[in-house]
Amino acid sequence: MSEELPLSLSFLGGSLSSCAAEFVTFPMDQLKTKMQLGGTQGAIKYSGPIHAIKDGFAKSGIKGFYWGFVPAMNRQFVFSGIRISIYDKSKAYFGLDSLSGGIFQRFLIGAFSGAVSSFLCTPLDVAKIRIINDPKKEKYTGFVDVLSKTWKNEGLVNGFYRGSSPTIFRSIVVNAVELGTYDNSKNLLMNWFGFSESSIALRFWASVAAGFFASVASSPIDVVKTRYMNASKADPKALKGNEIRYTSPLDCFKKIIANEGIGAMYNGFWFLWLRLGPWCTIMFLTWDAYKDYVGREYKKYKVKKALKSS
Q1: CA–CA distance, 61 with 70 (Å, rounded to integer)
Q2: How far apart (Å, rounded) are the C-alpha atoms in residues 217 and 212?
Q3: 239: alpha, beta or left, given left = phi > 0 and alpha = psi -120 to 50?
Q4: Does the keyword Transcription apply (predicted)?
């Protein structure tokens, strides 16, 4: 078992492992966002994943798939650092080690850590989505510009925290399922099949399960969040081209179902899973490797410190 890390090192581990996963899978996140818009709000309606990939490559090449990368990484560094450190410290507080029970407790702790981190990082999520959906730079020149204009034109609540409720709700669901499934899957594999706690196979299959179930649970919320946050202002009567405005996340959900059917809740699902599945695998494997290495070094540091003070 890895040495329990102090809050700062736990935060850094969550940040670095998540940024590594974000770098590899960001193109899928961008394509997923475009598919979720489903031709609304001035976006192109793609016939399928291949159409979305071809269109993106034709317009901007490979670099176009990393448009919006800077705000995504900024958001991920802060968001995951907060959620992982809260999750780790909460598990330690309640004594939930690798072989203990606590199935539901892990889901609850994951939900709590997701809620707190998502609330704090919603402004960065808004900036990421708006930059991704402005590839021609017609509205924003970059990360600083979108933050500045959103603050000036829409303010804190209507601008940065527009869509905070679906964002937070999504984060509660994703983190509860993702973190809870990962730890509970490891617990099951160790107790039922005798996997070693440090086994790469254990961590790999647990991360695969976490990515799949998190994708299934979060897709409907993710679609609503993307559509709602991309609309700059709530005006239920205004139509701008084919852009439908929404008064609330619930209104957005109802209009999607009414106009496009329940299947629209899984627009971009394959990109979501192709992104979240590998993302979870890279993140969790990196996170556990970080804890193994840094935990050993931190233990040595504590021993040396204790010897010096004795």
Answers
A1: 18
A2: 9
A3: beta
A4: no
Asked if the structure places residue 281 within a domain, the reply is yes
Partners of 239 in beta bridges: 244
pLDDT band at 121 (very low <50, low <70, confident <90, very high): confident
Rounded (5°) CA angle 262-268-270: 110
The CATH number given to whatever domain includes residue 83 is 1.50.40.10
Structure tokens at 109: 């702790």
**Residue listed under structure tokens 């968001």:** 79
pLDDT single digits (tens) 228-265: 777 654 444 444 555 567 778 888 888 889 888 988 89
Q: Report helix, strand or coil for 244.
A: strand
Element (H, E) at 61: none
Q: Is residue 2 part of a domain?
A: no
Q: Which residue has the tokens 């539901």?
A: 104
User: Is the pTM here over 0.90, yes or no?
Assistant: no
Nearest by Cα to 106 from 167, 166, 171, 178: 178
Q: Is the pLDDT of residue 100 over 90?
A: no
268 inside domain: yes
What is the chain's Cα-based Rg?
21
301 contacts 5 by C-beta, under 8 angstroms: no
What's the half-sphere exposure (Cβ side, CA atoms, 13 Å) at 51? 10
Phi, psi torsion values for 244, nearest 5 degrees: -90, 135
- Interatomic CA distance for residues 26 and 94, integer angstroms: 34
For 181-205, letters b (16+ CB in 10 Å) and e give: bbbbbbbebbeeeebebeeeebbeb
Domain that holds residue 16: 7-309
**Backbone angles phi and psi of 275, in degrees to 5:** -90, -50
Residue 1 lies in a domain: no
Q: What is the pLDDT of residue 235?
A: 43
Evaluate whether 140 touches 146 at the Cβ level (below 8 Å).
yes
Show the CA angle centred on residue 183, arms to residues 182 and 184, nearest 5°. 95
Q: Which amino acid is at 165?
A: S
